[in-house]
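Checked the freezer inventory, then went back to the computational side. Two predictions to log before the end of the day. The first one is the construct we discussed on Monday; recording sequence and tokens without edits.
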Amino acid sequence: MAEITLVAEPREESGTAVSRRLRAAGRIPGILYGHGVTPVPLSVDARALRSALTTEAGVNVLFELDVAGQRHLAVARELQRHPVRQTVAHVDFQVVRRDEVIGAEVSLNLVGEAPAVTKNGGMVEHLVLTVHVRAKPADIPTSFEIDISELEIGSSLRIADLDVPEGVTIDADPETAVVIGHPPRVQAAEEGEGAEAASEGGAAEAAGGPADEG
């Protein structure tokens, strides 16, 4: 994963009013911490941060953070967003080492179409949107792509079916279904009614057996 250099300015003051002034000036307040580094309150250019977070790596981008001439390898561990505009309001940067394994959330993206499902009136349901992975910072995948072109009604693709790069582990049950091909709603409803009727018939027969004998 490519690293993006981001210049940060230390800030002496803190508080809601200070943060509001920084955001009004086009800067995002934040803090840098980790690996014995004394927590450093700072701010970064809002446009530069937004640009970095919209690369292929997304929120898992690896930063080379320049704080008053001192460079730190870091990740954006937590992003606080405005409740309405969803713009970044505060960012926590965590210092990392190139050789350490860290955790991150990686998105699961569906690729292609599933004609065996959709052309027969079925529905493709995407159940798992992200997975938690563990890897060295530079090895964290930007995303996982799941080809659904061979998906059929009644079949599924699991965590175990993902193409996971060497050095990356997924913290999830391999049998967890990621995407499922559902039958048409009418067919599913009919199957459900048939199963219910069979269940009721069996129950009635079981209930009527002893009474007939009497």
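The second is the one RB wanted added to the comparison set:
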Amino acid sequence: MIKAVLFDFGQTLVDSSAAFRNAEKTAQRNILTDLQLTDAEGFLAEYRRIRRQFKDRSEASRVRIWSEVYTHFGRGVNVEQLKAWEADYWRTVADGTSPFPETMRVLEALRKQYRLGMVTNAQGAEGCRHRLGDWPQITDLFASLIIAGQDGMPAKPAREPFDACLAALCVPPDKAIFVGDDYHADMEGAIAAGISPIWLKHHLAKRNWPDVAANVPVITNLSPLLGIGVEGLGVASLRAEL
């Protein structure tokens, strides 16, 4: 029997997809202008390649990403300028973040039956304020909240943040599920920790989903966690394969 439901935060409980696109476009425009490059398409290709490398390592610091971009193009780095741009970047994301329509209803209902935990990666450089602080009505519903990637806690998909959340809830991994949107960080991380994953590809989040041969339950909004129940989302059959 499932005793705990763990969640990611961004693009799982809240939608920041449009805000991330706006923040990225502004950052790309600022850097392209500062580098004085004429080949915009070539710049974007290299920018996205470098950004992907950092994402694959679960590194969210825009200063470090952008520093690598400058280095790639043979330019010196003005760290203070990049820090100012990163602050604007995360302000744009925070201002454009809102809960999915069903988030509060689903969480409040699940809380009556399960222990709730959250495992989310830090955003930005070490010490950067996470936008989940703007949503106490969400975070107050959780018995355990782990921000991975800061204060010595490795970022997802490392299993340590999942283990820490379960330990705080006093729930073993085989009695928990994890709901998240990022296949690498969330699904692979949960599986490594022995937790059954549920992949949320929210229909309101405008983004590209990775094409992976994933043998995990997929939902397109949070409501099936109630309508079907977490025990009925293929979790039992999945657990037998872990």
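For RB: Residues 236-242 have pLDDT under 50 and may be disordered. The chain has two domains: 4-16+97-241, 18-95. Let me know if you want it refolded.
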